Amino acid sequence: MRRLRLSCLIGLALVAPSAARADQESDRLREALRSATAQSRALEDQRAALQAKLTATEQERDRLRKQNEAYRAQVKEAEQAYRQAVKDFNERIAERDDSLEKWKSAYGEAASVARSKDAERAKFEGEATSLKASNKACEAKNVRLVKIADDVVTQYEAMSPFEKILDHDPVFGLKRVEHQNAAQDFRDKILEQKAKP
User: Rounded distance, CA 85 to CA 93, Å?
Assistant: First the structure.
């Protein structure tokens, strides 16, 4: 600004010799000085506005940097939480797989035990059925055996004392053959009734 004034003064000193021209020249120089001053003030105002804008921009930049750093920290925390969640999830999956395998093996064992018990039950039911049938057959044979024994006793009781003497007498032995044949028939009937397991 000083230079501008100094240059204006030098210009005036040079122009002084001619007054008419000097007045015109001085008016022109004054006008140029006013114009330069106005431009200088406008430029100064513009510089102050730009400086304020620069300061605001720098503050905004700093605020955005801090916000960016905060977001990066949040992203890191989120990544760590995600990794931990994935790790926990994989561990739970592994535990579930282990327990599933244990359940499968326990189920397989229980199924095989159930199959063997079912086979034993079927076998025992078959044996029980055959034993029941065998028992019924034995009961029927026992009834026939009792009837045969009753026939023997009845026939023996029906013998008169004279027949008994004749039957046992070694000299006469007339009825002995009949008696032996009847005893053999009874023996055969008894043997037929023998239970066969």
Answer: 12
Supply φ then ψ for residue 51, to 5 degrees. Answer: -65, -40
Q: Map residue 197 onto helix, strand or coil.
A: coil
Q: Alpha carbon of 11 to those of 22, 37, 76: distances in Å?
A: 10, 17, 70
What would the pLDDT profile of 104-158 be if each residue is shown by its tens digit? 999 999 999 999 989 998 988 998 898 888 888 878 877 777 777 777 767 766 7
Residue ranges of the chain with per-residue pLDDT less than 70:
1-20, 22, 153, 156-157, 159, 161-176, 179, 193-197
Q: How far is CA 53 from CA 43, 57, 59, 68, 106, in A?
A: 15, 6, 10, 22, 77
* Residues in contact with 159: Cβ distance below 8 Å, sequence separation at least 6, in sequence order: 167
pLDDT given for residue 195 in this prediction: 64
Report the 3 state secondary structure along 36-67. Answer: HHHHHHHHHHHHHHHHHHHHHHHHHHHHHHHH
Q: Which residue type does 116 have?
A: S
User: How much is the pTM?
Assistant: 0.37
Return the number of other C-beta atoms located less than 10 Å from residue 163's C-beta.
14
User: What does DSSP assign to residue 195?
Assistant: -
